[in-house]
Write a structure and sequence with these properties.
Number of strands: 0
Distance between the termini: 16 Å
Order of helices and strands: HH
Mean pLDDT: 79
């Protein structure tokens, strides 16, 4: 996973947001809820994140 991908949070525009097992699992484990390739907007969000300036 690259640095930019960690900036992409899972959002309600995802077609499986409310039933996503990955999102549920991450929430149970207290992990960051990032967008994953299952989302129909993943590529769009990834491209958008690549264009954003990097911050530490």
């Amino acid at each position: 996973m690259n640095m930019n991908q960690s900036k992409i949070n899972c959002c309600e525009t995802c077609h499986i947001y409310w039933t996503c097992e990955t999102k549920w699992y991450r929430g149970e484990k207290g992990e960051e809820n990032i967008c994953c390739p299952v989302c129909n907007y993943f590529k769009i969000c990834l491209e958008k994140a690549k264009k954003e300036p990097k911050t530490k």
